[in-house]
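Field reference: sequence -> structure
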Amino acid sequence: MTSPPNLFNEVLGVVAQQVRTTVQPEAAAVVATTFSFPLALAILVVIFLLVQARLDSRDPKLRFAPRSAGDIYIPFQEDNR
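Structure field:
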């Protein structure tokens, strides 16, 4: 039986061989040149989330709102019978 690192290396070698025979260099070049739109979109989403978090932190209603469902639970009072 092979050890886990050797098994991982064997699997990785088989996958790398399959990728070499499957991926065409021309297709990789086309994807590399058209990758700018998804990358720009991802950057815009991250910037939006950062700006939105900054704006939300300035809103007093959101600042004092409960952060999780655990913050709204009221504990039971002990009954002295």
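Note: The radius of gyration is 27 Å.
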